[in-house]
Specification:
With about 425 residues, this protein is of the alpha+beta class. The protein contains ten helices and eight strands. The protein has three domains: about 5-90, Immunoglobulin-like, CATH 2.60.40; about 90-175; about 290-420, Serine Threonine Protein Phosphatase 5, Tetratricopeptide repeat, CATH 1.25.40. A four-stranded mixed beta sheet has the order 1-6-5-4, covered by helices on one side. Strands 2-3-8-7 form a four-stranded antiparallel beta sheet, with no helix packed on it. Helix 6 (about 330-340) runs antiparallel to helix 7, helix 8 packs antiparallel against helix 9 (about 385-400) and helix 9 (about 385-400) packs antiparallel against helix 10 (about 405-424). It comes from Oxylabes madagascariensis.
Length: about 425
């Protein structure tokens, strides 16, 4: 049975109520406080404080501060007025029960509305981020197209300039050839004119000699020109060896085909795991190499749990968590061991840690999330925190609505809560 806290002090103004509640050495957290318009509850096992307020308050702006062994409430009134008392007097049990249930329903509806609002806001943010990303990609694509167009125009200009240079070179060569032909034809014309000017006709011997000499001069000129052309050719290149140095790589794939960020993250995780395993842990000194594997320790803990050795299973899970604290199944299985050993607060901590690691919620981890909610809800109920336990069971039903066993347990908890309220 809970111990009711009757000692409290309060004062009021036209707009606010100031309430001080002593904790009697108990440690309170925001999770132990529940407040609505007309209902205030503080549940710190084994202590319990409950108040049906005299008039409605603004539960959104009202505050609660924990310190110096007290809880200080600042409750803002919805309508400025002086209250005759802190709680509603001369109210029958049915009315009190109605106000309690109404407060719980309103709190659930408010939480649901806040969740929906957060979901809508998150969707809007995603939509905005997608639009911004599309705009950036469109701007980047346009920038790349502009760069391509500029390069295309630059190459076209360079090609046109090269064509003009080639045409000018061909013209220069044709002009040079015409000049060479003119130089060769001029001596022939001069010789012809000399022949015509002479009165006597030369004999056959002299004509043959002249023809031969002319032919010889022409041949010698062509050989000289060919030798000049041969001298202008560049010398062949010297042989050499080119050395190629490749970038050192841990992975066998080429750097252009790899994802550097993912590879560095993987290498960092491997180095961290090796550092933890090679650290100075007294538990690892006598273990074999295969016994330092978290998966092997998890399987060993599962076998011990099946045999009923819950302490041995907890020790195996503890060592596995020290080696790798990112596996949600380790916390989930250890929570089951703590439930068997009646370590209820540790079971709640391990179940909560497992739920943190089981994110995002996907179909593959539905079964694990259901187990985490059920085990935490069971621990809450065994601590007589039925409201918190019911919340976990309802969360498990949302994930797996066809589970009849969870539905039956949730119904039992509802009956327990109603019985506790009626007895109070």
């Amino acid at each position: 049975m809970p111990v009711w806290l009757r000692e409290h002090r309060w004062r009021q103004t036209l707009t606010a109520v100031y309430l001080s509640l002593p904790l009697r050495g108990a440690r309170a957290t925001p999770a132990n406080i529940f407040c609505s318009e007309r209902y205030l509850k503080v549940s710190i096992p084994p202590f319990l404080f409950e108040a049906i307020l005299y008039a409605p308050i603004d539960d959104t702006n009202s505050t609660a501060k924990i310190g110096n062994g007290n809880i200080f409430f600042t409750l803002y009134k919805k309508e400025p007025a002086m209250w005759d008392s802190l709680t509603l007097a001369n109210a029958d049990k049915e009315k009190l029960q109605y106000l309690r249930e109404n407060a719980v329903l309103k709190a659930q509806e408010k939480a649901k509305e806040e969740t929906e609002a957060k979901k809508i806001t998150k969707q809007e943010h995603k939509k905005y981020a997608l639009e911004a990303t599309m705009k950036l990609e469109e701007a980047e694509r346009k920038r790349i197209e502009d760069l391509k167009e500029k390069e295309r125009q630059k190459v076209a200009k360079e090609l046109e300039l090269w064509k003009n240079q080639q045409k000018d070179g061909d013209k220069y060569k044709s002009i040079q050839k015409k000049g060479e032909l003119h130089k060769e034809i001029e001596p022939l014309k001069e010789r012809k004119s000399e022949k015509m000017s002479k009165t006597r006709i030369p004999n056959e011997g002299t004509s043959k000699t002249r023809l031969k000499s002319t032919k010889g001069c022409h041949d010698s000129g062509s050989i000289f020109a060919q030798s000049l052309k041969e001298e202008q050719l560049p010398a062949p290149r010297a042989a050499a060896t080119i050395k190629v140095n490749f970038t050192p790589r841990v992975f066998p794939t080429a750097l252009r085909e790899s994802r550097v960020a993912e590879e560095e993250e993987w290498l960092h995780k491997q180095a961290e795991a090796r550092r933890i395993i090679n650290s100075d842990l007294s538990e690892l000194e006598d273990l074999k190499e295969e016994e330092k594997n978290p998966d092997w320790l998890k399987d060993k803990g599962n076998k011990m749990f099946a045999m009923g050795d819950y302490l041995g299973a907890v020790n195996a899970y503890n060592l596995a968590v020290r080696l790798n604290n990112k596996l949600p199944l380790l916390y989930l299985n250890r929570a089951a061991c703590h439930l068997k050993l009646r370590n209820l607060h540790k079971a709640i901590e391990d179940s909560s840690k497992a739920l943190e690691l089981l994110t995002p919620p996907v179909p593959d981890n539905e079964n694990a999330r259901v187990k985490a909610h059920v085990r935490r809800g069971t621990a809450f109920c065994q601590l007589e925190l039925y409201t918190e336990g019911l919340q976990d069971y309802e969360a498990a039903l949302k994930i797996d609505p066809r589970n009849k066993n969870i539905e039956k347990d949730a119904e039992k908890i509802r009956h327990l809560i109603q019985g506790t309220m009626q007895s109070s």
